[in-house]
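Q&A log
Question type: sequence-to-structure
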Amino acid sequence: MESLSRISSLLETARDLTLEAAQSASAAGRSNRGDKQLSSRETRKLLNSRMDREVLDGLRRVISIMSRGVDCSEFFADVVKNVASPTLEIKKLVYIYLLRYAESEPDLALLSINTIQKALNDQNQLVRAMAIRVMSGIRVPVISQIVALAIKKGVTDMSAYVRKCAAFAIPKCYKLDPSRLPQLTEYLGTLLGDPSYFVVGAAVMAYQDICPDRWDLIHPQYRSLVKMLIDMDEWGQLATLRLLTNYARHSFPLMTAIKNKKPKIINGEDAEFYSDDQASETVGDGQVQYVQKLDPDLELLLKTCPPLLQSRNSAVIVAVARVFRHLAPTEYISIIAGPLVSLLRAPVDVQHIALINIVSIALKNPRPFSQFATHFLVNTFDPPHVWRLKLEVLTLIFPEVNTHTKNLILSELEYFAQGYNKELVKEAVRAIGRCAQSENKNSTRCLRVLLRQVESSDGTLVAESLTVIRHIIQQNPDAHSNTVIWLAKALDKTTNPSARASIIWLVGEYSGINNGNNISADTLRLLAGDFSSESEAAKQQIVLLAAKVYTQHLNRTYSERVPGKDEDFDALQLESQHPIALLFSYVQLLARYDLSYDLRDRARMYKSLLSNPSSTELATLLLLAPKPTPHAPSPSWGRDDFTLGSAAMVVGKEENIRDYVPLSDWVSVSRAPSPALREPILPPGEISSSSRGALTSIGIASKARGGGSGSGSPSYMSSTPMSGTPKFSQQLEPRDHAPTKSTTPIESLEDFLASDETEEESTDEEESGEDEDDEEEDDDEEESEESEDSDNGHKESSQLLGASGSGPTCAVIAAKNPEVIVTIVDLNAARIAAWNSDTLPIYEPGLDEVVKACRGKNLFFSTDVDTAIIEADLVFVSVNTPTKTKGVGAGYAADLGYVESATRHIAKVATSDKIVVEKSTVPCRTAQSMRVIVVDMNEYQKKRFLNRVVSCLFNTLTGKKIAVLGFAFKKDTGDTRESPAITLVKYFRAERANISIYDPQVSESQIWMDLTEPGITDDLTDLQKQVSIAQDSYEACADADAVVVCTEWDEFRNTQLDYQKVYDNMKKPAFIFDGRLILDQKSLEAIGFHVETIGRPKTNFQTPKDWE
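Response status: OK
Response body:
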């Protein structure tokens, strides 16, 4: 009984395990089919929870299920009720859900509109932008008015991102209610004039969707659109280029000018010495050339586009090519040739589009692509649609290339003509024929190449070769009689029906040469003997050959008889027994009993024509008439009529492309809009940039890292008027006095201004517009004085805060603009004193002469920041924008906290309107667009260089001395910003090395400051245990294990530094690591150094002879 009980217990346990496994498998299956089937009740519970964390979890689950294509409309009410949640993450997910299901549940969606509308006033720009996106994305016509109001509010929003979303919402609102077009067009006109390229690109897309023909909206914005083009994102650039191409055709007439090819001589004198009227009368046939005359605004567009050819987006390159192809003179095409060819290194689909565009251009202008001939050679792995286009390009550029390249192209085509791919063989042979017809002097070689293919066993190759040979012979028949004889002999080996037919036809065409003394009759005799075994195509040509030979015989016979003389019956009888007549009759009999009715009909027609002597002339006209020279067009012929980059050009002219709209014709001169319409519309009270005004430059600097600017003057400068209080870029009052000096401290700047040093920052922005207000002068006498100054010439004032950072920049401004007063302001009195002394705090080549020439005249240095701001007309904000070391964007994004603080202080202190120029080291979008390559690649190269040092020093730096020569980021400057030496010292310290640093211009204090920044070390005492600063190169290298050259100072070169002395005082083996490619490696190795150079392969370590 006990055993039975145990067995029963085991069975029950097994059953439970089986059920458990089955349940697990079932659950897994249901999980694979979607979480929705598992947890609808649980999901609702989460969505209705009072805890944001659980609601967020539920929303994520719903969105996840929705993304798999599962219908989640049953959760609509539970999801939408969370639209009022203050949590940003919850709002985002609810908005995503609403965009998907609002159309299917319009009533419930309308209940959430009120809450979404309130979000338009949220302080967070992301919430405001999402609200506009969601409202415009709810495809319920009833809310079109509410959407329009949201767009109106978004158009005037302070955030560029919100304005961009408003632009994208305009087409959606138009689709909901087309009757709102006038209202939406007004909003669109405002957005097209937005100062942010971020917004304008979206506005252009909206314009293309709702009113692509409203050129009146584009006229005043044309020039600003052209100037913003370079800064837009790729999609904005595409839309804008498409718009500007169409606009140019509608607004700029195609004007031509006469350009003399050769000087016309009049009465022994050059016509160029005559007046324009006289010279124009002397222009004769063949002496003039008409060239396109560019409108200045069109020329502005053409000058703006070339930088876009460096875009990573292939579509942008094609769009720029479209601009030059359809708007510019032919000499501009060479600009786009190289970038288009560079796309051949892209994936296959991009190659295909690029080749189609290249072919379209080369059909009319192949010369620009001739220098890139080798890029069009066929690769082994090219798909058919790619190699066909490559072969076509090679034939198009063939007449334009040099002899060497022509030989290369023909050799390439000959190689592929002997391949195994029948389609490629056909195209290669046809390409050879097109090369021959494009240039007659190369037809002989092309013919020689093709004749070698006639004896091939590949029937396809032979047929295609003979077709092309026939075309080449017809271009110059008299020069190819021997070729026809050779082909006739080749009939014994040729078996392809099409090939035999082509040869027989060629023989027939030569049946009349040498007064009948040719091979045509003998060839006919041989063919007639095996007539029944020929193909139908060959039989037709044999019958035609017989008719031609007999017609030639009749023409010769009747031309020898005397006209009007009675015909002798015996002579006629004798004529009918001539071998050619008998041969013709024999072929007629053979064809009469052939199974092909077409062949029988042909033979009957020829017999009827030639049986009556009176119809011989008609037979001659029909059979022996000269044939037109055949011309094989390029396979893509006709595609050049389509707009470059369009889908219609890709598909071809045989297909009907729906909605394709060709580019309009050039507007006529009489109907072209006035250029005055393209003058920008200035807001009330604003003056143009050409008006005179006082210029004041104020830069505000923070804790310094660099000793000075990297260059003496800025390369590019642009600025954007800042919003807020006070309103910047308003009235610019002329000034003729220097700023007063005071020592008032500025407490509000202490959070970002260092007490001892400042830093230079550079900028890439420039202010192009100035504003004017209607503020009246309080003092009539002052007004009259300023008016007098305006008439007689006044002194403009420029002031800069941040004595070390932007000192060189503004010193150059003062030197180049003597009428501008420049004041540089800094909180550090010692540094200001240095700028006013004979020893400047910054080293730049030529800076000392510039400062001394301008100082005391129109260049001043002061510590009074507030006064400088108050008296400023133009403010340079030159603050530190260091790379973030923590948080979002750490390692690559700029920390803009100092910029914000400076801006707020300017707004607080300023008592009049200002123009503010943001002057920093991080240009607009630099951190975003160059995130991977500037950051990641630089760090990789530094670490790679470090690893090379460690590897050469036997995989350890512990206790070893490393001499670092150079600490500035480049020679001839004391600037250390982003210097690689800083990072290398950090790495060397981490490897427990002892470092000795020497730089001829960077001060010790600057080096210690750079090495104690966050990310390097915060403890100066600990730092000085491992790092020392030397006074010269020899001191730094004494007892060193290795020397690392980090800056390309001339004194570090072999010709300046005694490296034998350095070697004698170093430990052995002695290593030198050239990080700047300035050292002569061979001479150093001859001394005994082991030299490693960046960018060159690692050298094998060899034991020097002097210490073996």
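Response note: The radius of gyration is 43 Å.
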